Amino acid sequence: MTIERQPDTFVVTVVLVNGLTAEHRYPIGNVRSLQEFERAMVGIVREPIDALMGNSPATAFILAYPVAVYNTAHVMTLRVRGEGSSQAMQAADHVHEMGFLARDRSP
59 vs 13, 32, 49, 70, CA distance in Å? Predict the structure, then answer.
């Protein structure tokens, strides 16, 4: 019997100024290195970070899984965490160094 390994997941939690939160769960396959995790993460959070930091003219951004559009004026912060392999969770620990992202670890 073969036990199939579950894919790693990159979770982005959006915290709004009114205190509400929403989770977006991106399946990213099986992460084998920090570089692999960073490549997957950058494609997901680049647009929101640029919009929140004023590095683009956008006043809104879209996240998937589930799809939602956020007005940057209503977003307080983004939190990220990795779920699955220890590599994904360790890689997520490094993400808090980027812009508006806060470190968030699942228990």
Answer: 19, 35, 11, 9
* Joined tokens for residue 9: 């997941």
Closest by Cα among 39, 40, 21 to 78: 21
The answer to whether 105 and 92 have CB atoms below 8 angstroms apart is: yes
Alpha-carbon distances, residue 31 vs 1, 4, 5, 75, 80 (angstroms)? 23, 15, 11, 29, 16
| Percentage with pLDDT > 70 across the chain | 72
Answer yes or no: are the C-beta atoms of 102 and 27 closer than 8 Å.
no
